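Working notes for the structural subgroup meeting. M.R. asked for a predicted model of this chain before we commit to crystallization trials. I am recording the input and output together here so anyone reviewing the notebook later can reproduce the run.

Input as submitted:
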Amino acid sequence: FPQDQTPQGQSYCNVMMRCLWLTRPVCKPTNTFIHAPTSQVQAICRGLGRCHGRNFCDSNSSFFLTICRVAPGSRPGHCVYRGRVQTRKIRVACKQRLPVLFLRIL
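Returned structure, recorded in token form:
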């Protein structure tokens, strides 16, 4: 997948950020969407990831991601996002063997 911004990524970001109410009362600066079945993301915390400490686990495999970042000049209710697609490994926080928070791209 291209690492550059794409019109498809931008359209996806604008629609999804609005649908998830991430554009009010402020434009959320960034959000990462993981395109995978829930079971694959859960597997990171259930032995198919490399865990550090008590609750940070890194995926062993890569995931298809869309990273949405707010464009300069955006304002609540009229947020414009730039989308970038990547295939990368990720780090999540786990609790009771379930992912509870996306932490970062590795």
